[in-house]
Amino acid sequence: MNQTAVGAPFEETEDCRRLLSAFDYFIPEVLAEIHPEWKSDALDDLIPLVAKRSGEREAIHFGLSWLIRDQTVVPTYVQLQIDPDLDRVNWLECRIGERGPQGMLRRPGNSFDRQLYRLQDREDLIDWAYHVTFGEKTP
Asked: How far apart are CA 34 and CA 69, in angstroms?
């Protein structure tokens, strides 16, 4: 993260890809602690529309995630803070999926580009199906 200025988007690097890949496992684990239905679901890639350094040791990723179970896509917003001394997540806020009449809306993956474009500047307008936090944010 230190190679990127605060407010600047992340370059597509191996470290950035590794972080996004770690979300595939970490986010469902955090969600499953509160929402048991996530014990049987998993993510397969978060494709960011926004990936930027938002503060000292902090980042925001907003885009679409693939759901392994049925290969549909859902909007995903992750803001996190990295521990200054350890290589781990200190604090995380995660919002995932849009609320629909039967729970979380799952959109077909074949319209991926259109779905990603539809999210532009809408992270605060989405009626999120899930919203959880993990850890404690430090100053």
From this structure: 20
- Segment (H or E) for 94: strand 89-100
Side chain identity, residue 16: C
* CA dist list (Å): 53 to 10, 37, 40: 7, 31, 31
Report helix, strand or coil for 85. coil
pLDDT in tens, 6-50: 766 777 777 777 777 888 888 898 899 999 989 888 898 888 889
pLDDT (tens digit per residue) in 96-113: 999 999 999 999 888 778
- Torsion, Cα of 34, 39, 42, 48 (10° steps): 0
